[in-house]
Amino acid sequence: MKVKVLTRNPDIYLRETKKDIHKLPRNYDPSLHPFEAPREYTKALNSVKLERVFAKPFIGNLDGHRDGISCIAKQSHALSILASGDYCGELRVWDLPQRKCKWKIQAHDGFLRGLTFCNDNERFISVGQDKTIKIWSADEQYCKVPEEPLSVILSSTVITGISHHQKEPKFATCGDVCQIWEESRAEPLKVMEWGVDSLQHVAFNPIESHILASCASDRSIILYDTREAGPIRKIVTKMRTNQLSWNPMEAFIFSGANEDYNVYSYDTRNLSMPVNIHEDHVSAVTSIDYAPTGREFVTGSYDKSVRIFEVHKGHSREIYHTKRMQHVTNVCWTLDNKYIVSASDEMNIRLWKARASEKLGVLRPREKAALEYADTLKQRFAEFPQIKRIARHRQVPRHIYHEQQQLRASKQKISRKEANRRAHSKPGTVPFVPARKKVVINEAS
Amino acid sequence: MSKKLKKFQSKRENDSESDSDVYEDEIHNRFLENIKQSEAKPKITPATRNEPASEVSEFHLQSKRKSDKGKSTFRKEDLLRPLKSKNAKLAQKLEAVKKTSALPKPLETVYEKKIQREVGYEKTKKQLDRWNDVVQSNRVADQLQFPLKNRQVEIYDHTEDFLFCSTSNPTPLEKELSAILNSSDVAKEDHEKMEQTKFRTTLKDIISKRKMMASVRAKASYVVSKGRRQNKIKSKKYHRLLRGEKTKQQIKDFEALQKTDPEAALKQLEMLEKSRAEERATLRHRNTGKWARNQVIKAKYNKESRVALSEQLSKNRELTQDLKVKDKDSDDSADESDVTTNIEKVQTDSNNPWVPGSDDFNKFISSYKKYYAETAPRGNSAESASHVDSTESVSHGDSVEQNSLEQLKTTTDEGNDSEPGEVEDMPQHTVQEVENSPKLKKSKKKSVVRGKVEEELKTDDECALIKEITNSSGSWTVSKLPAAENSSNVKSKKNKKSSESGSSSNVSDMFESLEEKISKKLKRKISEISEAPKTNNVENKKVGKKQKAKKKKKLTKSGQNKPNDDQNKQIESDKDKQIDDQNNPFASRSKVTKEPCPPVDVIADFKETSYRNPTKDVTDLQNDDEDGDTYRQMVEEAFAADDVVADFEQEKAEAVDNSLPKIVDSSLPGWGSWTNSAELTEKKTKTKRPRLNKRLLFKVPKAPPRKDANKGHVIINEEKSNKLKEHLVSALPYPFTRVKDFEASIRAPIGRTWVPETAHRQLIAQPVVTKLGSVIEPMDEGELMDRGEL
């Protein structure tokens, strides 16, 4: 049998040395490339498929806590250390790159409520159910277990949350009242109250660092000016805000994780309605943290999932879940914009990639260029049905899936009912009210 | 009774009071005094602060200054009294103050706090508004790089560790040394200075920078506009003067440079040489420029322009003089023999379009040729066309040259066919040749002109002239014309003369060699063609009937009646074409060779200085490359067994069949065929085809003719594809408002296959760029513009 083979002379296409770079002559005349758009579409389709193939966001977990984790804290100007506290008052310091526990200590009697690193990264502060504020030293690269805290401040009431100032050695706590402390003093510098008996979370604005926001159990969010005025504004929403986080790149934007399954982003200058509603969770959103780029944020929810939202979009771009992850109590986005840490009720801290299919480590220039090209193509063809379908497809746990369906049905029911009422009543009596205007019930000054 | 009782009771009470009052008061007072005395020190002391606290309890406050009687320990008047005597004005003011009414009662705390909050919120809003611009610009930015580069410039003070900048871990000694050095007064002062100076960009800086840039740009534009204005000046005198000035200045400069810096002068000389070489490499100083073409048009009437043209050409000659690159002629005899053998090997298959013997291949090649023949005279030798069309004198020269070529051709013909009779009626023959050549589509007009020329030549004693010119390598110069001979163009004449005398014999030698080569080629071609069984009809179609007649006439004249007329014609036409192809490049090149040189040089000249003639390329395509032939042979071998055409036809037939609308039979089994048992048995025994009820047949209307009905070489699938539909966008995506825009955006490619690398990089730039392992700090005050210093 005769076998026909097309052969090529290897001298033509092989390089003699590694540094021989062939210049590929190209003719860019569009009449010579009649199928450029279909070819790019195929490329986009392939890359979006590959993206889903490589989407393996889970990196690892940090286990060791003997009770559910109540709070975690990241360093303010460094990457490698993470501190976490649990419901039985144990405090652990983790080395993130090694994924190991550096040391642990029984810090408080019962329920460690809040943790924060100082702005110089040399100390960190914990607050607990036992009405104490403890300042811990982080000397010697966190290698030595401190026998006792640097200082202990006794408070008259239970403190439920803590947040450190971005630049100065000050921190704010919340509980019955909101208090501003100086690290070296045992008495608060300032006490700010506005008729609420319990605040559960407090957060300093990282840019305009004299502004402070806290959320209260009476479904309100209160803004404070720490310099002179004290409390300046309060809004009451339909349901309670569990946590809030300031956008680190936009001084006036903050987002609150709400009990009504949604996240609301507010503009501090116009609090009468949120600038955006981010919905997708199927249970109360318990925690939120902004990416350092200010373009995205991550939320943890009682529905046992972590979601990533883009700031300007109403729905999440990503959902992370594992079989064993229970109610997520805390999330944080690392300062290099690469990873997400989530802490949950079942005693584990999990480490995720911020972009599920991203390749970790250093990329070669050509590889990088190829990935960027693929990303751009995905963007360009994002609206094409096949690409959209593949990019959006996520396998979610059964409970979330069913809950989503139920929620959808209930929403449809409400909207249908409203439409019916509108149809059968005098025109103008049932006005259209946008969803955003329904969020804030009362804005008080 | 009751009244009495009451009275009595009250009286008794009064009595007891009055009695006991004095007594009890005394006791009480005594008791109090006793207590007072017993309390040497008060048990409850006023609160003292030992811890710095921000909050002070109001219950601990008391005014100690007030005495028990409600009088204060000091009075304002006491303090003011000495003032009255000393400072009268102040006293008056105080009096005025006294007269003003009291301040209103302060607001209740609730309302006061509310107002405070309101004011505080407004202030905060204003504070936050400062970030608006930065946030907005970041939101709309195409690309953001994190960590953000602050506008504030940080200056790294390396004086602290200048000693051990080489090593990351300094030794203790080094540390001590640097500490000592840093503790010096000078170092401290420096350090303080550095700290005090803030390098933050201000609005003022940016505005001043912008102004500076604007002024620079404006100045540049002034210069440009001035240059434009100067360029527009038409005065020749002005330009001459300008040029003169420039050259003078240059010479002056050069002389000065020679004196001061001979090396630089040498360099400049080299530069001059180089520029000359570059000019030689370009096609300047030829007759292709705009000016030259205008001169050509004028040349008929104007002597001066003729002179100018000849000067120009002579300059070109001067410039192109010393090119001495030798190049071998590509057509070697050995090659030829190889090729011919190869071609002989080739088995012609009429069905395979890529076999050279087949119709398709011939068509393809001929169409290629035709195309290039058309483009060649248009594109490259526009000047020659203009000569022929417009000016007699110039076309004279051109036609003369052409004639020489034709003559050459005829000689080759003689060599091949050994037809002696043709030499005699040469002019006539040349005209025919010209007409036959596919190159000259507009040949009618031209041939008319040429015919005129020829007639003129006939009348004169031009045959000799032609020969003479062919000997002198056919250079077309105006000086050769009889009219121009009389003129004062001495220079060119001299040139010509010298050339004629110098190397006419050499040139003729060269020509002979060329002829030989051409004849060889022709032979080969003819053999190739004669082997091909089918005649090429396309060629014959092109040649008009008139021409055919002429040819026949010619043949009869020559007295050679060949038996196979058709084949002969074919060969003839092909031959003509070949000859043309061979000659055209030569013709165009011959224009370039103006200076008579030794033969090798001249050949080199042909190669180097001539502009590429596409007809040459066509011939390359067709025959002369050995590689091409072997490749073709390889392809043929590879696909020898594949009957591509038949396969395709079958496929197309199937496709057509499938696309034809089918007749729908809507009859149901059993229905309409009510029968008796006999028939049923009959049916069982015979496998009879069921009768079709015509009423139940649904005839589909005839489909419109297929798009590929008249296109033998393609199958056009006209069915809609559902698979494709899945991939199509159904709604217009968000930012677009028109479908056209969206389609355009999709159509513009971004891959490096379709756009240049730099553009590709810009197109794929990511919206957010982060640096691996670097902390992204929150935004900083440094991002804000400092507006205060405006």
TrEMBL record, chain A:
Annotated compartments: Nucleus, Nucleolus
WD repeats: 62-96, 105-137, 278-319, 321-362
Annotated Gene Ontology cellular component terms: small-subunit processome
Positions of region (Disordered): 404-431
PROSITE patterns, per database record: WD_REPEATS_2 (PS50082), WD_REPEATS_REGION (PS50294)
Domain (Sof1-like protein) ranges: 354-440
Xref: Pfam families: Sof1, WD40
Xref: Gene3D superfamilies: YVTN repeat-like/Quinoprotein amine dehydrogenase (2.130.10.10)
Primary site of residence: nucleus
BP-aspect Gene Ontology terms: maturation of SSU-rRNA from tricistronic rRNA transcript (SSU-rRNA, 5.8S rRNA, LSU-rRNA)
Keywords: Nucleus, Repeat, Ribonucleoprotein, WD repeat
Family, as annotated: Belongs to the WD repeat DCAF13/WDSOF1 family.
Protein name per UniProt: Sof1-like protein domain-containing protein
Species the sequence originates in: Parthenolecanium corni
TrEMBL record, chain B:
Biased composition (Basic residues): 439-449, 543-556
Biased composition (Basic and acidic residues): 25-42, 69-80, 320-331, 451-465, 563-580, 604-619
Matches recorded under InterPro entries: SSU_processome_Utp14
Protein name: U3 small nucleolar RNA-associated protein 14
Annotated stretches, region: Disordered: 1-80, 320-358, 378-511, 526-627
Biased composition (Acidic residues): 414-425
Gene Ontology biological process terms from the UniProt entry: rRNA processing
GO cellular component terms listed in the entry, alphabetical order: small-subunit processome
Keywords tagged on the record: Nucleus, Phosphoprotein
Compartments it resides in: Nucleus, Nucleolus
Species of provenance: Parthenolecanium corni
Record's keyword annotation contains Nucleus: yes
Homology family: Belongs to the UTP14 family.
